[in-house]
Structures are given as C-alpha cells and as structure tokens.
Design a protein that fits this description.
Helix content is 26%, strand content 23%. The chain is an alpha/beta fold. The radius of gyration is 20 Å and the shape is globular. It binds N-carbamoyl-L-aspartate (NCD) and zinc ion.
C-alpha cells in the first residue's frame, strides 16, 4: 500500500482509494474496488479526483470499544477524556463506552452531568457513559437511564469503590434498570452464575465484561445454548498473555480479572463463536503507579488491540470478518448505538510494527505488549466525514466527539 493522503483537520479530502478491500457487513459490502470520497462522504463520482493506491489496504467501519476507563473525574494524571479518545482514534476506534469507576464514581445525577460536560468538551471521538450500580442509588438510576450507555454492576473487586456484595442488591438492580437498556457486569466465578441467573429471572439481557477463564466461557456458552439473553466480551490480554508466560514485572502484571492459565486462554480461542465483542478494558495507570508499592490493576489497550487481533488473522486464528463483527457490528447491536454516517477506518493489514509504551498517545506511557512484533496498522480514521487520524497524527480536536445514546430511545 502506498500514497496515503496528507489529511488536515476539516472535511476529508476528495479522493479515490483504488483497489482496497471494502468491508461493511451492515450494508452487505465486501468487495475489492474503488472507494470514492467526495465532500467528506463515501460515494459520488470519481472523475477529477486524486487517486491513491489502496491495493492491499482494507477499509472497515468505525470500531467501537465497549469498555474503556478515561479516569475523569479524579485521575486526570493517568488519563483524561482528550488523551483517552486520542489513543482511541489512533487505535481505529470512533466510539468508546466509558466506565463509571472514577473518583468520585458516576452513580448519581450530579456526577453524570459533570461527566457529560467534560466529555462534550474534551472527547475527540464519539462516546457513551456508563452509570455504576451501588447500594445508594437503586431508586434513582432508572430516571438517568436515557442519558447512559448502560448500567455497570461490579460484583468482583477491582480498581475503584463500586463493588456490590449483596445478592439482594444484584436482584434489585436487575429489576429496576429498564429492560431495554444495556446492563453489564464484572462477574467472575460464582458471581458470573449469579449475574446470569438474576438477569434471566428478571427477564432481561446482560452483558458480561472481560471474560477470562475456561469455566466462565463454558458457562456463558451453556447459557447461550439454553437461549439466555447473555452476551460477552473478551480483552486481548486474556487471549494473548498468560500469568506464567507474560514476562511482566510485579505490579505491571496486575489486572482484573487476573491473567489466567494457558488452558483458559485456549478455551477462549476455542469458544470464539460465543464471544460477541472484543473490548480493550483500557485501564490506564502510569508507570510510576505500576512500579510503586500499591500497584493498581489494569492495562492500557486502545492502541494495540486492533493490531493484536489482525496478527491473529495473519496466524489463521481469526478472519477479518470475525474482527469486524466483534469490534463493530455486535457492539453496535448490543449497545444499540446509532449509525455514524461517513465513518470508516483504513487499515494496512500487512504492516508490521512494534508497540512502544513511550510512543503511546495514552497518558499511561506503557504497554504489556512492549517490543512485540504485530502485523496490521491503522492508517486513517474518518468520523462523520472528518479525518480523525491520518499519517500518524490524531486530527480530531477535543469536542469533536458526540454522546451516542442508545438508538431511538431518547432522541
Ligand atoms: C480497571 C481499572 O483500572 O479501572 N482495572 C482492571 O484491572 N481491569 C477496572 C476493571 O475493569 O475491573
Ligand atoms: Zn474495566
């Protein structure tokens, strides 16, 4: 692939990308041909436009990450909405759904309003904001539901103070949160069985975050085969790293759910058909914290995820369609995200490169995949007809992103 345009902020340049594979499952498109971009829109007449050589390149729809931590408010030293969404754009994501375990957490109207304001002013890509369930907000959340990407239940310990211990509360939140709104859970081991059953008995869907172990994916598979409305995501680190082999120093190794055994990673690979989404769980903590006496759990992931999945495509473990289904089509369906017209990602699937923490756009400044050789690189991202990323530069300014509420429900 050659000849990528120099893009500037503003409308995307008029161009014909010649000979690229264009993949858009929602539109039933998968062909090699010309992609015409005129006045920031896909389509139109190619005459008179500059032609760039797109052979070997792939054009896919804008990617969605349903699980990121942007650390606003409270830990802007680790990440803020502008730096997290900058990392997202560089990683091929046009939408990130942000978790509520901030300081203070997003559990009430005042916190949500401040979070909305900060995101509106600072986000460089589109976003949704999750609310956190807790003991004090059972009665208040349903009224906030139209403004949220979903409700997160923390049933296991992790970073932040949102852990819920009581079965009563789990059942009550499953009943109180509107059934047509996304409900998601961090639920490991026995808590996973409890979450799936509680949601099922409440007659509603549930999405399980960062599944990491064999018994868990097998339980989800069994529930799906029984027709339960359960969906799930996995993160690259649980498929590409294991506790024994990862080589990460103490502190850096900490993540929740913890890295697991080879058999667990293999079970995830073997059950891909039951895995709906590839999320990152982008959990930026600085090197100083990871190397310190109380290392918080979590790995940054926005800038390495797509390349890792594309490397698996090269290895024959996945197809490109598998990746697009789990990073675009399924996330949009499960979280009922509205369409983003004239939004696409240009990828060079062959380009080999090496992730370096020091080169990340995330404030975290490190990666568990430091020094790996991965294959597949984002070359351009266009969001609603405007270049968000091109030529290694993030072009979308803070404030360019929109809050994507679940489609059709409140706007
Ligand atoms: C996340 C964080 O840092 O916010 N940490 C993690 O280890 N995954 C929280 C979470 O998703 O559990
Ligand atoms: Zn997380």
């Amino acid at each position: 692939m050659s000849g990528r345009l120099v893009q500037r902020p503003g409308p995307a340049a008029d161009v014909v990308i010649r000979g690229a594979r264009v993949l858009d499952p929602a539109a039933g498109i998968d062909h090699v041909g010309d992609l015409v971009v005129r006045e920031g829109r896909i389509g139109g007449r190619p005459d008179g436009l500059e032609v760039i050589d797109g052979r070997g390149m792939v054009v896919v729809p804008g990617l969605v990450d349903v699980h990121v931590h942007l650390r606003v408010p409270g830990r802007e030293d680790c990440e803020d909405i502008a730096t997290g969404s900058r990392a997202a754009a560089a990683g091929g994501f046009v939408t990130v759904l942000a978790m509520p375990n901030t300081q203070p957490p997003i559990v009430d109207a005042a916190a949500l309003a401040a979070y909305e304001q900060a995101a509106q002013a600072r986000a460089r890509c589109d976003y949704g904001l999750y609310l956190g369930a807790g003991p004090g907000n059972l009665g208040a959340l349903a009224a906030l539901a139209p403004r949220a990407a979903g409700l997160k239940l923390y049933l296991d310990s992790t970073f932040g103070d949102l852990k819920m211990d009581s079965l009563d509360l789990l059942i009550a939140h499953c009943a109180a949160w509107p059934a047509d709104r996304p409900l998601l859970a961090h639920a490991e081991g026995n808590n996973l069985a409890a979450a799936i059953l509680a949601a099922h008995l409440a007659g509603r869907a549930i999405h399980i975050a960062h599944v990491s172990r064999q018994a868990e994916i097998e339980l989800i598979r069994a529930a799906k085969l029984k027709g339960f409305a359960v969906t799930c995501e996995v993160c690259p680190h649980h498929l590409f790293l294991t506790l024994k082999e990862c080589g990460l120093p103490p502190g850096y190794i900490e993540v929740r759910p913890r890295l697991a055994a080879q058999a667990d990673a293999e079970a995830l690979w073997a059950n891909l058909e039951f895995i709906d989404c590839f999320a990152t769980d982008h959990a930026p903590h600085t090197r100083a914290e990871k190397a310190g006496p109380h290392p918080p759990p979590g790995y940054p992931g926005l800038e390495t995820a797509l390349a890792l999945w594309l490397t698996a495509v090269h290895q024959g473990r996945l197809t490109l369609d598998d990746v697009v289904a789990r990073m675009h089509t399924n996330p949009r369906r499960i979280f009922r995200l509205p369409e983003q017209p004239d939004t696409w990602v240009e990828v060079d699937p062959d380009q080999a490169w090496t992730p370096r923490g020091a080169a990340l756009r995330s404030r975290a400044g490190w990666t568990p995949f430091e020094g790996w050789i991965v294959r597949g690189r984002v070359v351009g991202v266009t969001l609603r007809g405007r270049p968000a990323y091109a030529g290694e530069n993030v072009l979308s300014p803070p404030g360019a992103g929109r809050n994507l509420h679940p489609a059709g429900l409140n706007r």
